[in-house]
């Protein structure tokens, strides 16, 4: 049971990590189109910070 729990936590960790990488790439892309859509960038930047914050809490709790 403990092994299954650890596997689940590890999979969540990987999912969060890949989402974070995806968001970082996307935010780099949004930097390019920032001049055209500043509101979209601000909103997305906030989302990225929020997810990074949650990810760091998750990492501290389980690793």
Structure commentary:
- The chain is mainly α.
- The protein has one domain (2-62).
- 89% of the residues lie in helices and 0% in strands.
- It contains two helices and no strands.
- The protein has helices at residues 2-32, 38-62.
- The longest helix is centred in the N-terminal third of the chain and has 31 residues, at 2-32.
- The radius of gyration is 15 Å and the shape is elongated.
Cα separation of the termini: 18 Å
Radius of gyration: 15 Å
Please give the share of residues in helix. over 70%
Give me the strand/helix succession. Answer: HH
Tally of structural domains: 1
Q: What would the average pLDDT be, to the nearest integer?
A: 65
Largest sheet: none
Helix count from the secondary structure assignment: 2
Q: Structural class given helices, strands, pairing?
A: mainly alpha
Number of strands: 0
- pLDDT < 50 stretches: none
| Shape, per Cα inertia axes | elongated
Note the beta-strand portion: under 5%
Keywords: Membrane, Transmembrane, Transmembrane helix
Transmembrane segments: 39-62
